[in-house]
Amino acid sequence: MKSLREYKRSTILTPIMVIGEVAFEALIPYIIALLVNDVKAGYGVDHIIHYGVILLIMAFCSLFFGYFAGVECAKSSCGLARNLRKDVFYRIQDFSFHNIDSFSRASLVTRLTTDIQNVQLAWMMLIRTAFRAPLNLILSFAMAFYMGGSISLIFLAIIPFLAVGLGLVIKFTMPLFRLGFPKFDILNRTVEENVRGIRVVKAYVREEHEKEKFYDAAENIRKIFTKAERILALNNPLMQMCIYAVMLFVLSFGSREIITSQGKALDIGQFSSLLTYNFQILASLMMLSMIFVMVTFAAASAARIAEVLRTESDLTSPENGITEVSDGSVDFDHVSFKYEEDAKNAVLSDIDLHIKSGEVIGVIGGTGSAKSSLVQLIPRLYDASEGSIAVGGRDVRGYDLTTLRDNVAMVLQKNVLFSGTIADNIRWGDKDATDQEVREVCRLACADEFIDRMPKGYDTWIEQGGTNVSGGQKQRLCIARALLKKPKILILDDSTSAVDTKTDALIRQAMRTYLPDTTKIIIAQRTSSVEDADRIVVMDNGRINAVGTSEELLKTNKIYREVYLSQNKQGTDTLPAEEPQNKEPQGIEAPDLEPQDMEDSGSASDSIKPVKSDTSSPSKGKEANGRE
Q1: Global confidence as pTM
Q2: Domains of the chain from N-terminus onward
């Protein structure tokens, strides 16, 4: 109801117009009855014309009220649907990652589309038909009683019978609808996964498998809703039975009354109007049954929408939150983190790390070592379960969320571009940036070389998700977008895995010169991407295993040494002699560790198995015809 807002006027006008429409419809059979009786009494054509004009005016008035009732009803229902979509979408924008994970993307899409459409249709019936049917029922019954007397009481006799029947229908269909709508989520998820991964599907010739998955999801929906519709289908024969039973009674007893009283107790005009009112009453009952069906169907959808609207974000800005970040220093003070409160094992355990403003920090570790989870706590995409994180010397939970995230730029592991031009995508970093600034950051990210080769340059259209550019091109555009933001903290989460090592080095050098005071945290699989960092953090199983420069770690840390050797394929005689384990930095746990696979990022260089180092010529790193 809160989503009605500016459409309250239309919502109120609709039933008012319906009252006028029904009032005239209820009077028309009464006028016809008078006309029939006057014709029977022998009145002339002029009398018929008189009644004809009255009926024409009444029909026009009914049409007038009915038309505007329909117009206002459409405004109200469509406006409600628009506002509901807006409210749900805005609420989703405030959700934390944890909130979104609890619903799933496919479910949220279903609620924004199918569920809201069901509510829109139900609302349309509630403010028009749900007023029209009972009002028509009451007025028609009152006029039938006035015209037919005790015969009209038959209408009251069928109401309890109908109420019981409809109650049973609702009782058995509601659970099925509640069960069925989540199946739409599964169907949407199946379609979404297939469309997103269509290249993989075709590469592995898994089209038939995907067809079977879709068929199974669609078949589950069919079975549940067919069962529900079978029960709902009982509504129609129930109503038909009542209609014909009443009609049979009225015809039998009405005819008998006319004959036995010789038209004194009930004449032909009254009898004809009684039959008309009979149809109006039964039509109203049919409408009511349709309303019950639609509302029953939409109630499950309404509950799913309300669930989103009632969900409060796990992460909110504090009142009077800090609106300025002094510098890019980051301090992890004995931080532990779980994605779920009741999870047995923590993703991050006792992280104690202090990063100075302007430092370049590399983060390296095996699959599942929680590198991405570590950096996602900095802009409060999640909150730490234990301990605290400070940015610029202030706890992140004390900042206004917009301020904090405006000062932290992240290039995520899964790069995302949006439909629009290249320039539009870059300006996500700064919507007011000039063309020159856009070109500058693209040059720094080594993206200008392929943009300039495109026919429309920076006006080239990017399809949704960036499907018409390569992985490396997408990464460089995302890096350019982050550079344009000029943040206090820049986080690259395995963001150069799809570019060659030469381009990777150029991008890192550009970041040092373009943003010298910005703290840079680089998560990488290649040691070459982090070996020139001020310090490198080695993660293992959610803990910090070691911290130091590349040279220090080659001497003291087994994990880093193994990764370095596997990627560079060098003999141990070319490396510094390994120092005893007791020379590890104080306070950092150094258990006996085995070599691990690097975190999967979809690149061949992600494995710690020996591979050839990149010795390609400078020209080899460039794309040909827009492809890498």
Answers
A1: 0.67
A2: 5-310 (1.20.1560.10), 359-369+407-621 (3.40.50.300)
